[in-house]
Amino acid sequence: MLGRRLYSTAARYVTAARPTDGFVGAIGNTPLVRIGSLSRETGCEILGKAEFMNPGGSVKDRAALFVVEDAERRGLIRPGGTIVEGTAGNTGIGLAHVCRAKGYKCVIYMPDTQSREKMDLLRMLGADVRAVPAVAFDNPDNYNHQARRHAEALDNAAWTNQFDNPANRQAHIETTGPEIWAQTGGRVDGFTCATGTGGTLAGTTRFLKEASDGRVRAFAADPPGSVIYSYIRSGGRTMERGGSSITEGIGQGRITANLQPDIHLVDDALKIPDADTLRMLYRLLDEEGIYLGASSALNVVAAYEMAKALGPGKTVVTILADGAYRYQSRLFSRAWLESKGLADAIPAHLQKYVVL
Ligand code: PMP
After folding, report:
1. Helices 274-288 and 294-310: crossing angle, nearest 10°?
2. Per the UniProt record, which EC number(s) apply here (predicted)?
3. Ligand 1 centroid vs 195 CA: distance in angstroms?
4. Distance from the CA of 174 to the center of ligand 1, in angstroms?
5. CB within 8 Å of 207: residues ≥ 6 apart
């Protein structure tokens, strides 16, 4: 009798799917989390897609899997080959996991400005990490061009080219978008997120616009130092940078091939200052118990502003791209925050979280 009672309890609570096919089978199908405090404040439903719960810890696991499987399908890589990529870190971490699981070698080029945690993790996952000086895309020594040249010089190697490879946005057309649609029962009014490669914004927007016959509104969320805000607000006429930001993995200086086909679908853009991002990051930790990286906090600020713009009763979805674990030596360090002029951005009652 006990067994039967426990079985019925399990049937009521367990929603998890059947066993997955290893690491790659566990990518995606992340929870959609209601952010209660902000939903109450705006009278809207503010929902975050918990991408930090992917097995490699970020939204970029989805793109990593799609670009590797695209290279396999196109015959660019054979068993025992090498995947080479330029990345701020999260795509590299996703790729390092996927490569271990599929038996490929993995070479990662990244700007030397990125956090220590991401570089250490990549090395622990067996990637060959090349930290190179952070120079602009039009400089031949930019990390992406170095990754391309590295792959070209090797036999049986593929440069997955996440910025301009449409397999990246395809991951979000085929998985992120449909998941959000299914999880909200189609009751979604707004979507917003920031741009690194633009795969998440472009792919998810494309799916949600098509599924809703254009009804879902899409806003790009942009940090200072990125041209996306200026590009969208000016109808594609200007690309002003304006400043710099502490947010890692987002901000873009050009319209990538992932953005190109869909950026006209994005209705508007929001520019979010670092102080607002940081305040939200600490606030979500304090009020919701969610430990998020800075790009996620920026996305939530954008979702909050979008909710206020759309008005009460609406549902706005954003992306919780990764967790703070990857940046904690910076985001929770008083010395680091002071060095960025941001220590005062954190209100007195949240200063207790600055523990390093
Ligand atoms: N947030 C974080 C933490 C990231 O690492 C990235 C990707 N670099 C993004 C957001 C942006 O995702 P996408 O490349 O799909 O624009």
Report:
1. 90
2. 2.5.1.47
3. 6
4. 17
5. 172, 173, 176, 177, 178, 181
Residues with a catalytic annotation lie at 60
Q: How many angstroms separate the CA atoms of 32 and 219, rounded?
A: 19
| β-bridge partners, 50 | 320
Rounded distance between C-alpha atoms, residue 107 and residue 129, angstroms = 6
Pocket test for ligand 1, best of 30, 54, 60 (most atoms within 8 A of CB): 60
C-alpha 46/C-alpha 188 separation (Å) is 10
End-to-end CA separation in angstroms for the chain: 53
Shortest-distance Cα residue to atom 2 of ligand 1: 249
